[in-house]
Amino acid sequence: MKKVVVLGSTGFLGQRALEVIKHLASEFQIFGLAAHSNTDLLARQAKRFRPRFVIIGDSTRLTELKQKLGGFLKCAVLTGIAGMTEAVTQPEADIVIVCLSGLDGILPVLAAIEKRKRIAIATKEILVSFGKIVMQRAKKYDAEILPIDSEQVALHQCLAGNNLSLVKRVILTASGGPFWHRKNLNNIKLTEALRHPIWPMGKKITIDSATLMNKGLEVIETVRFWNLPPQKVEVLIHPQSVIHSMVEFLDGSILAQLAVPDMRLPIQYALTYPKRLPSLLAQFDFTKFPNLEFFPPNLKKFACLKLAYQAIEKDNGYPCVLNAANEVAVKAFLQGKLKFSQIPKVISQTLRAYHPPQANSSLTLKQIIATDQWAQSYCLKQITVCSKP
Ligand SMILES: NC(=O)c1ccc[n+]([C@@H]2O[C@H](COP(=O)([O-])OP(=O)(O)OC[C@H]3O[C@@H](n4cnc5c(N)ncnc54)[C@H](OP(=O)(O)O)[C@@H]3O)[C@@H](O)[C@H]2O)c1
């Protein structure tokens, strides 16, 4: 029986992770659950799964959580990053599912790496900003990092047993979000941007899908995961979202991974790998997809994707700046403080204003944290200027 800690258990993906663990109850057991502020759902999950650790990110909600847990206080109830770190480093914890939004998971992830846990990571923002450090430390400590993002899980399967030097290119597929076929991106309403055609998801990633920044973050995530040059990572719009990504080898052979678009499959894959077990997915029906379409992305219209390519080409902290500015810009759009079309503009301004601490080298953990903070506050200032009447 493997014991699992889920960081971000109340989110869209976290809830899917718990469904998978319930389905595979003879193999996996919940050891820890962490959320930011949703005490209602976290308490219900704790009562259902009876973990040893329950963590609430927002420490001001600790009393409220304890009240909601009521008599069920056999578990340790902790707060914040320290609480998550304590849970993931326990000797009994085997697997850590990282599906919390934002960068707060980085210290627990690094701590879990040092304890050589299996880390199943969905939070692409962590890999975009801290990917080099995460992958280097995983190598140093011989910890296992497995992806949950469906594109990376597809690549993981297509690349299995193949030498990376034999790869000509990888092709990340993108649903295109709600606007890929729209002429221009002016006057986009929040409700339209939140209506993803294929995947129900958290708000931040749904907006990222609409701007195609999500695919840009995945390009960087791919570079970090597989240590591939950015020129070998291509993006294709594939509105049916049935092919989750592809690898083309030097001889022209292309391997693709197909499945019903359902995040429970990549979560299960990261849990059971290298085994495969029956899943909750409906059987794939090829006759429902007589046409699989592919289109090149329009980088002029979707400037966020272009900015992501530029950021990873320059590297040296630029991916972190891109991610931080995007976090702030998307939050402002969700709050009605920034127009959809202004999202790439403020990110671009922030990238232009960035000066790396040193030329051509990797940033330390401390430098990345400082860069993230600088980029967030610089972007916020740009948004204040934009929103002045
Ligand atoms: N959704 C998908 O299909 C999908 C696919 C691939 C990758 N991802 C990635 O997975 C991550 C989560 O996506 P999502 O759609 O599930 O987001 P979401 O629905 O917004 O959920 C975010 C989760 O993170 C928790 N959280 C945030 N900050 C925290 C903190 N400091 N401490 C503890 N918990 C914290 C939230 O708790 P509260 O509920 O209490 O706020 C919530 O449980 C993102 O990085 C996204 O890019 C998502």
UniProtKB/TrEMBL annotation:
It comes from candidate division WOR-3 bacterium. NADPH binds at residues 10-11, 38, 125, 202. Mn(2+) binds at residues 149, 151, 218. It comes from the Bacteria. Residues 4-131 form the 1-deoxy-D-xylulose 5-phosphate reductoisomerase N-terminal domain. Pathway: Isoprenoid biosynthesis; isopentenyl diphosphate biosynthesis via DXP pathway; isopentenyl diphosphate from 1-deoxy-D-xylulose 5-phosphate: step 1/6. Residues 145-224 form the 1-deoxy-D-xylulose 5-phosphate reductoisomerase C-terminal domain. PANTHER family: 1-DEOXY-D-XYLULOSE 5-PHOSPHATE REDUCTOISOMERASE (PTHR30525), 1-DEOXY-D-XYLULOSE 5-PHOSPHATE REDUCTOISOMERASE, CHLOROPLASTIC (PTHR30525:SF0). It catalyses: 2-C-methyl-D-erythritol 4-phosphate + NADP(+) = 1-deoxy-D-xylulose 5-phosphate + NADPH + H(+). Pfam families: DXP_redisom_C (PF08436), DXP_reductoisom (PF02670), DXPR_C (PF13288). Its cofactor is Mg(2+); Mn(2+). This is 1-deoxy-D-xylulose 5-phosphate reductoisomerase. GO terms for biological process: isopentenyl diphosphate biosynthetic process, methylerythritol 4-phosphate pathway involved in terpenoid biosynthetic process. Residues 258-377 form the DXP reductoisomerase C-terminal domain. The gene is dxr. InterPro entries: DXP_reductoisomerase, DXP_reductoisomerase_C, DXP_reductoisomerase_N, DXPR_C, DXPR_C_sf, NAD(P)-bd_dom_sf. It is an enzyme of class 1 (oxidoreductase).
